């Protein structure tokens, strides 16, 4: 599992030179430093472990994760690739 996650991160780092996924699209709800509870409902995700964020975002994508407002996040992650998700998770983990 750990190897798979690391591999994904390396792939994301390579892809990032071409198109880094941007947290700007998330800042409106989660805050510029991911320090807010989005729409007053989400957990504060700043500093979340990469694996935890990746699991949550993939879960929103396939419908296996989330609370009452998961529909909001499904729309956010639908167009993200696995590499984009890994890249975003890395940036979120760096915010503390
Ligand atoms: C329109 C507002 C909005 C935007 C934009 C948005 N989110 Fe969210 N996010 C939410 C809400 C509301 C929740 C809680 C949903 C639920 O009930 O599970 C959430 C939950 C999350 C969670 C899980 C936290 C938890 O409470 O379990 C993560 C991780 C996350 N968002 C990351 C992102 C990322 C990364 C982006 C940008 C690609 C983003 N969000 C964009 C509103 C937003």
Description:
The chain is mainly α and 96 residues long. It has one domain (2-93): Cytochrome Bc1 Complex, Chain D, domain 2 (Orthogonal Bundle). The protein has 5 helices and no strands. The chain has helices at residues 2-16, 24-30, 50-62, 70-77, 82-93. The chain is globular and about 35 Å long. The two termini are 25 Å apart. The model has no long low-confidence stretch (mean pLDDT 88). Bound molecules: heme C (HEC). Heme C binds next to helix 2, helix 3 and helix 4.
Summarize the structure.
It contains five helices and no strands. By secondary structure, the protein is mostly helical.
Helix-strand layout with pairing:
Blueprint: H1 2-16, H2 24-30, H3 50-62, H4 70-77, H5 82-93
Q: Could you say what the CATH topology is called?
A: Cytochrome Bc1 Complex, Chain D, domain 2
* Structural Rg: 13 Å
- Any idea of the CATH class? Mainly Alpha
Write the CATH architecture name.
Answer: Orthogonal Bundle
DSSP helix count?
A: 5
Low-confidence stretches: none
N- to C-terminal separation?
Answer: 25 Å
List keywords for this structure.
96 residues; mainly alpha; 5 helices; globular; binds heme C
């Amino acid at each position: 599992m750990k190897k798979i996650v690391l591999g994904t991160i390396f792939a994301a780092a390579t892809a990032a030179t071409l198109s880094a996924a941007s947290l700007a699209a998330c800042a409106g709800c989660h805050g510029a430093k991911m320090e807010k509870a989005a729409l007053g409902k989400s957990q504060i995700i700043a500093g979340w472990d990469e694996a935890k964020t990746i699991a949550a975002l993939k879960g929103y994508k396939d419908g296996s994760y989330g609370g009452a407002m998961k529909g909001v996040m499904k729309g956010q992650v639908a167009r993200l690739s696995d590499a984009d998700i890994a890249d975003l998770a890395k940036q979120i983990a760096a915010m503390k």
